[in-house]
């Protein structure tokens, strides 16, 4: 999950012009901002302006204004399109020599001498030189460009896709016209598009081809049967049901194609593995909780940008309806002067602030700028000036997605700082920024307000400046008191770790050793050891290092084993999972010897190359290899297999879960044919590592973003702590799946291990176990349910934990760096210039209002949703077992209340008859818990609307019966609450009689607190009666007369109720006007009335069943 955090940054361009394009190179460490006449090159980490390219007037008049910029994959060149059909290719020279070098003064003026290490700029600050190399004149207007290592795809408005080399040569034999391609459609579709003047308006690379958007709103995937992508081998796969696309982007990791639509929605497609076509996965729009009127002012999508290459998120920019009137189909401004247009429209009637949103890979909305109080208000409260006189024109991600760079129409660069959660940590909430870590306490006894208190941890300045940004984070499992809680972080080289007890960092003793370790597979912590997968640059060896926490960080003191290059690693209990560059998953056992040494032994190797999708042509091969180094899959060991012939990978963990491109696969070992003949049953060990086979992979779920299992830590004696053990077996053995906009899923077991162990201990019932275990999939059920939050993990109280963002604003922030003769620079700066001419943060403009955002931890109860889904599927016995196992939870009563309350709101407010209502079934389920039945019904009635009481008390018990049951069970507090309900349903005399009865019972049992509340209740009734007696002489109003006449009309109740049940008025069947103040308040405060006739069909059927 990616969320904005901290303070935004505003960079002012030297010459105030609208930013037409803002793009970063493939490494996301250099940004280029393109205006009509300038090219600005910024360094991503330091935000320094490294280079400016200014055009001459003659060049502008001849070739037109700059429109869009495109980087070469190796960052050695950049292609720029102009408004007069030119493509300009610039050579970019990036030297290793540092720029912006500050020198301390020498001599008497020593006030500016730097004494702290934080004042020294150790980050990379290369020199950048730009020169024009190639100018290519085109026959038509270029719409978009797709760049590769050796050439470019240049799309023109006449339908041609030219292959242009970076040296300026057009490869005519490889160029083709999109209108002449043999389309994989029916003949009718061909005839419909034969005479249409369409062209490619947007293009994006994909692993299986090229994603394109047509000018008429169609979208397709262009594929080729050969690797050279020649015209004769090209075919087009159209996205069905999409006719209003305007832009596109691709996600390599999850194999998704995102299309922005003209109505403001986002459509996502994926390739079908069966026939190779495109299938739509979801189509979503922008949603906000407050300020929904702003959604009507949003027009088409301007840009979609997927975080590459990790694919963990994508950002979306929208146009307002005023701005879209001045833009063409491709989002380009018609007259090229965006600043003037935005100024004119916004100064008069534009009221929609800039719209930006961040989504998960499968469409779950994480954050929206309209929900940001600063951006959504669009007004400076101090100066009372409007701030909506600008819009976002372009955007791109920074390295690792830690910043989102936005180009604006008023000549600024808006930088939003981003933090992201760690997917490998599911027992704590950890957010990581580019140079900081946020750790939230997971237990309530550590912090009083754990949802508000975040522990901010900053790495040492000496490490982060040379290894920016943070790429790997690992948090030790704090379930054993003998080990200190450790946080290990790693950048590009080496690592360091933080001890929570001592509050100190530890780094490598020698900087040369730190620089020699190039991290490839990350970090992990096991007990008092830190495991590190790295490449030793001195020896060029791929090694798995083991460092002891008590020792100094020294390569000479570390133990290591030789491996292939490891891309990912994860510790599951006492076992280590690694995924290598050879598409091999290795399982290692971890154990501590008597000599306090960590022993690592490989016990299984699984090849998963067939589950990974490789590119089918050479253009995407570099993209695939670059993506492979970041890891294509997620993996986890679990105990899920119930095959009769199943083996165990290690200990009791007999299943390997792999998330490949959103498809969650289950791999489980089985006996080989040789072992089956010998009748052997044994675990996999190092001796028989080649003797086991795998069952055919089972597809557990699709559209999976994250998944995890809860390990009970029973396999390792190092992490046993009863405080953290999960006591609910159904949930501890479940598989938790996060599916984006398709909400949360739980693969819940319908039987637990204790039942199987009781059967397996009986030799007579052992065949029954094996027969049941053959259908282990049917013994689990996939339960989907929606949550208001995006969950990261399930804590020890079985609460779903997430996070959201709260924002504040501040204005008129000025950051000026004084210019003095005592400080000089060794860059292109002259002696009279100052650094503030190149870097400025929110100068003294009146409209400079930025946001300061903070994270807040959120919780949500979800167990009642599981029980509801089980009851809906007629699995009442399993729902009862699950609820019975949850009785030890402190908020178990609240779970039952939520179950009843949510279902009551759903069925009572339904506008259509419900053929099979679930409410009677839930009431019968609640009766199975006698201790919680009465408080659940009574508390739910007091918290719900009065209009729903008729339905609630019809399927449960009459309020008088509930009152009598409370007296019989001596639950006088509940009887007091029930008395309040009866007071709203009966007359004052009846309420007074029941109150006296309850008062006598309280006196007899010496419950003086209850008696005091009843006396206060009766005094209020007397005061209301005296007030009503004064109102009897008031003349009757016409409205009251009409209501009184309506009271005398007879309405037949919809249900066959007894005379005793008809003694209290049904709000839906009759209305009474009584001289009681309480009765008048009841009529006016009911909010809305319900029509029980809507439920006649439903509940008549229920009564027949009973």
TrEMBL record:
Enumerate the InterPro entries for this protein. Quinoprotein_ADH-like_sf, Ric1, RIC1_C
User: Is the keyword Membrane in the record?
Assistant: yes
Stretches for region Disordered: 1078-1106
Q: Where does the source fall among the domains of life?
A: Eukaryota
**Major place of residence:** membrane
Gene Ontology process terms (BP): intracellular protein transport; retrograde transport, endosome to Golgi
Return the GO cellular component terms, semicolon-separated: cytosol; Golgi membrane; Ric1-Rgp1 guanyl-nucleotide exchange factor complex
Which keywords accompany this UniProt record? Membrane
* Residue ranges annotated for the RIC1 C-terminal alpha solenoid region domain, each copy included: 864-1026
UniProt cross-references to Pfam families, sorted A to Z: Beta-prop_RIC1_2nd, RIC1
Would the keyword Membrane turn up in this protein's UniProt record? yes
Q: Where is the composition biased (Polar residues)?
A: 1078-1090
| Subcellular locations according to the entry | Membrane
Return the protein name: Protein RIC1 homolog
Species this chain originates from: Meloidogyne enterolobii (Root-knot nematode worm)
């Amino acid at each position: 999950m990616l969320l904005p955090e901290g303070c935004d940054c505003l960079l002012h361009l030297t010459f105030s012009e609208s930013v037409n394009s803002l793009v970063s190179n493939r490494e996301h460490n250099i940004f280029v901002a393109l205006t009509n006449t300038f090219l600005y090159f910024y360094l991503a980490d330091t935000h320094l302006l490294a280079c400016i390219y200014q055009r001459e007037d003659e060049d502008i008049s001849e070739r037109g204004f700059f429109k869009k910029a495109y980087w070469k994959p190796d960052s050695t060149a950049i292609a720029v399109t102009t408004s007069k059909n030119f493509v300009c290719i610039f050579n970019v020279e990036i030297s290793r020599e540092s720029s912006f070098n500050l020198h301390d003064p020498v001599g008497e003026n020593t006030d500016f001498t730097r004494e702290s290490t934080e004042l020294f700029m150790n980050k990379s600050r290369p020199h950048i030189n730009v020169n024009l190399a190639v100018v290519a004149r085109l026959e038509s207007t270029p719409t978009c460009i797709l760049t590769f290592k050796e050439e470019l795809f240049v799309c023109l408005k006449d339908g041609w896709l030219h292959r242009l080399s970076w040296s300026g040569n057009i490869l005519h034999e490889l160029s083709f016209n999109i209108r002449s391609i043999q389309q994989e459609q029916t003949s009718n579709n061909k005839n419909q598009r034969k005479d249409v003047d369409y062209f490619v308006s947007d293009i994006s690379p994909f692993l299986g081809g090229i994603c394109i958007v047509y000018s008429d709103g169609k979208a397709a995937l262009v594929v080729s049967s050969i690797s050279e992508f020649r015209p004769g081998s090209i075919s087009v796969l159209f996205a069905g049901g999409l006719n209003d696309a305007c832009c596109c982007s691709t996600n390599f990791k999850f194999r998704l194609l995102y299309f922005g639509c003209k109505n403001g929605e986002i459509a996502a497609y994926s390739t079908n593995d069966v026939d190779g076509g495109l299938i739509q996965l979801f189509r979503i729009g922008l949603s906000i909780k407050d300020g929904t009127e702003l959604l009507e002012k949003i027009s088409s999508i301007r840009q979609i940008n997927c975080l590459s290459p990790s694919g963990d998120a994508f950002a979306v920019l929208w146009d307002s309806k005023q701005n879209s009137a001045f833009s063409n189909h491709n989002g380009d401004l018609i007259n090229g002067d965006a600043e003037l247009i935005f100024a004119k429209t916004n100064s008069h009637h534009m009221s929609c602030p800039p719209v930006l949103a961040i989504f998960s890979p499968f469409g779950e909305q994480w954050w929206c700028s309209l929900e940001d109080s600063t951006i959504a208000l669009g007004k400076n409260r101090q100066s009372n000036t409007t701030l909506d006189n600008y819009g976002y024109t372009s955007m791109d991600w920074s390295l690792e997605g830690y910043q989102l760079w936005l180009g604006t129409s008023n000549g600024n660069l808006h930088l939003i700082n981003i933090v992201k959660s760690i997917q490998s940590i599911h027992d704590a909430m950890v957010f990581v920024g580019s140079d900081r870590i946020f750790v939230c306490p997971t237990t309530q006894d550590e912090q009083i307000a754990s949802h508000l208190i975040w522990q901010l941890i900053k790495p040492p300045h000496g490490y982060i400046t040379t290894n920016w940004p943070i790429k790997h984070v690992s948090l030790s499992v704090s379930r054993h008191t003998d080990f200190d809680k450790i946080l290990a972080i790693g950048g590009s080289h080496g690592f360091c770790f933080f001890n929570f007890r001592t509050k100190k960092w530890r780094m490598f003793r020698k900087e040369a050793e730190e620089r020699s370790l190039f991290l490839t597979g990350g970090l992990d912590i096991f007990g008092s050891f830190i495991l590190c997968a790295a490449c030793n640059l001195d020896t060029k060896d791929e090694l798995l290092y083991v460092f002891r926490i008590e020792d100094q960080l020294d390569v000479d003191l570390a133990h290591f084993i030789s491996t292939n290059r490891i891309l990912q690693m994860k510790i599951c209990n006492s076992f280590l999972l690694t995924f290598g560059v050879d598409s091999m998953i290795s399982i290692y056992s971890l154990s501590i010897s008597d000599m306090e040494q960590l022993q690592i032994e490989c016990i299984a190797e699984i090849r998963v190359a067939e589950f990974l999708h490789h590119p089918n042509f050479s253009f995407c091969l570099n993209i695939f290899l670059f993506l492979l180094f970041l890891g294509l899959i997620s993996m986890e060991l679990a105990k899920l297999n119930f095959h009769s012939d199943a083996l165990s990978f290690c200990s009791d963990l007999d299943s390997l879960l792999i998330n490949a491109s959103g498809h969650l696969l289950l791999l489980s070992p089985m006996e080989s044919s040789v072992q089956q003949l010998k009748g052997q049953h044994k675990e996999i060990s190092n001796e028989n590592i080649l003797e086991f086979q795998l069952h055919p992979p089972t597809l557990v779920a699709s559209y999976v973003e994250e998944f995890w299992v809860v390990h009970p830590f029973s396999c390792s004696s190092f992490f046993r702590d009863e405080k953290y053990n999960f006591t609910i077996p159904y949930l501890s053995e479940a598989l938790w799946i996060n599916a984006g906009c398709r909400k949360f899923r739980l693969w819940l077991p319908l039987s637990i291990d204790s039942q199987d162990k009781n059967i397996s201990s009986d030799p007579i019932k052992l065949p029954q176990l094996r027969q049941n275990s053959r259908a282990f999939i049917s013994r689990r059920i996939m339960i989907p349910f929606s949550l208001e939050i995006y969950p990261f993990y399930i804590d020890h109280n079985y609460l779903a934990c997430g996070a959201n963002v709260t924002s504040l604003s501040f204005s008129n922030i000025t950051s000026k760096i004084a210019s003095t003769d005592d400080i000089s620079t060794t860059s292109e700066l002259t002696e009279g210039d100052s650094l503030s001419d190149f870097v400025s943060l929110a100068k003294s403009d009146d409209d400079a209002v930025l946001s300061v955002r903070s994270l807040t931890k959120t919780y949500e109860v979800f167990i009642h949703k599981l029980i509801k889904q089980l009851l809906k599927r007629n699995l009442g016995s399993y729902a009862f077992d699950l609820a019975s196992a949850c009785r030890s939870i402190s908020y178990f009563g609240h779970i039952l209340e939520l179950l009843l309350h949510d279902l009551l709101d759903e069925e009572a407010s339904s506008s259509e008859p419900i053929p099979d209502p679930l409410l009677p079934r839930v009431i019968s389920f609640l009766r199975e818990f006698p201790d919680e039945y009465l408080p659940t019904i009574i508390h739910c009635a007091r918290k719900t609307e009065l209009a729903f009481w008729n339905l609630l008390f019809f399927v449960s018990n009459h309020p008088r019966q509930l009152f009598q049951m409370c007296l019989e069970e001596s639950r006088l507090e509940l009887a007091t609450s029930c008395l309040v309900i009866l007071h709203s349903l009966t007359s004052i005399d009846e309420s007074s009689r029941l109150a006296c009865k309850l008062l006598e019972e309280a006196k007899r049992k010496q419950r003086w607190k209850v008696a005091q509340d009843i006396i206060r209740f009766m005094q209020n009734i007397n005061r209301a009666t005296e007030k009503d007696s004064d109102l009897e002489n008031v003349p009757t109003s016409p409205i009251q007369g009409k209501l009184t006449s309506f009271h005398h009309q007879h309405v037949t109740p919809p249900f066959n109720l007894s005379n005793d049940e008809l003694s209290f008025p049904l709000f839906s069947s009759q209305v009474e006007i009584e001289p009681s103040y309480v009765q008048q308040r009841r009529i006016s405060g009911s909010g809305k009335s319900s029509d029980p006739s809507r439920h006649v069909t439903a509940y008549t059927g229920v009564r027949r069943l009973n």
